[in-house]
Amino acid sequence: MFVVLLSYTCDISKVEQHLAAHIAYLEQQYAAGVFLASGRKVPRTGGVILAQADSREQLLQILAQDPFQQQQLADYEVIEFIPSKTAAAL
Asked: What are phi and psi of 15, to 5 degrees?
């Protein structure tokens, strides 16, 4: 399992211009079963994604499709962890 931390590298107004495309991308990854949860950081300096993938390399390929990454609007930090306990919903 992975935690992906996005940190915006530009003004929020530029992020807003690509938000609809980013949301469509998120929806595709939820439908594919890759993303489990996502949302904005508080304060709004980026976002967080909880993901499951077969490998870091697979996840990096998926993240490369994100319009925020394609437009170089955010830096991505990928943290892999092995869950030892989860809520029933997960």
From this structure: -60, -45
